[in-house]
Design goal:
Layout (H helix, E strand, L loop, with lengths): L9 H45 L1 E3 L7 H10 L3 E6 L14 E5 L3 E3 L4 E6 L2 H7 L2 E3 L8 H10 L3 E6 L14 E5 L8 E3 L3 E6 L2 H31 L7
Parallel strand pairs: 2-5, 7-10
Antiparallel strand pairs: 1-4, 3-5, 6-9, 8-10
């Protein structure tokens, strides 16, 4: 069987010819575009290379003295500004004038870059110390103990104790106990902590003396009760 031939007409030939005419123009345009881009790419690469060569290593200035750190960075070509750091617990053990943070951090930067140095003063360090050594105020007058603890930055709660025989000889308005109480495990508390102060009032003292008197009377009554036991529970003697 003979193969079927595709019809060929003048219109189809014309369209194909147009396509082949466009190809050289497109190739020429692409070539021109490439030639135009190459200088731009070279220029960008050259700029990046020059910029890289201009970069200066920014050292880490944290823990250094603020004046020394500023002088050193300015000698390297950086612009330095000092900023007082806000109080923070991690600054409690720092030294006055010490750099505690910097922005940006160490790295390769262009000369003239602004570098912020954060430093601390004695006031910032004091405000950063959030723990306070807890003193023992047992035995002090209540008012004196309250004033002392409040001056340290602690808050006090005065709690009157109930009358107990063991408090019969204590003085009123005197701290009998405190909570928390300083010991080997507890030596400091956070600033602003509450400290409970237990003290004896006049009413509590009277109650304590009454309870002591009552306890003594019971103690005196005990021998009498023992003597009465045989009468209450008579035992027959064995023959």
């Amino acid at each position: 069987m003979a193969k079927k031939k595709l019809p060929v007409n003048g219109k189809m030939i014309g369209e194909v010819a147009k396509i082949f005419d466009v190809i050289p123009d497109t190739t020429r345009m692409i070539g021109e575009a490439v030639h135009a881009v190459v200088p731009l790419v070279d220029k960008v690469l050259e700029q990046n290379y020059q910029k890289k060569n201009r970069l200066v290593r920014l050292p880490n200035m944290v823990d250094m003295d603020i004046a020394e750190a500023q002088n050193h960075l300015e000698e390297l070509g950086f612009v330095v500004t000092r900023i007082l750091a806000k109080p923070h617990q991690r600054y409690a053990n720092k030294q006055a004038g010490e750099v505690v943070a910097m922005v940006p951090k160490s790295g390769n930067l262009e000369p003239g870059t602004l570098v912020k140095l954060y430093y601390v003063t004695p006031e910032v360090i004091a405000a950063s110390d959030v723990t306070i050594s807890l003193p023992n105020v047992i035995g002090l007058a209540l008012e004196e103990a309250q004033q002392h603890l409040q001056e340290l930055g602690l808050r006090t709660i005065a709690i009157p104790v109930k009358g107990q025989s063991r408090h019969a000889y204590q003085q009123t308005e005197t701290v009998l106990d405190m909570q928390p109480k300083p010991n080997m495990l507890v030596t400091a508390v956070p600033k602003g902590s509450f400290v409970k102060l237990y003290y004896l009032t006049e009413v509590g003292l009277r109650e304590s003396k009454e309870k002591l008197r009552h306890a003594k009377n019971k103690k005196l009554e005990l021998p009498t009760l023992v003597q009465q036991v045989p009468k209450l529970f008579p035992f027959k003697k064995r023959k």
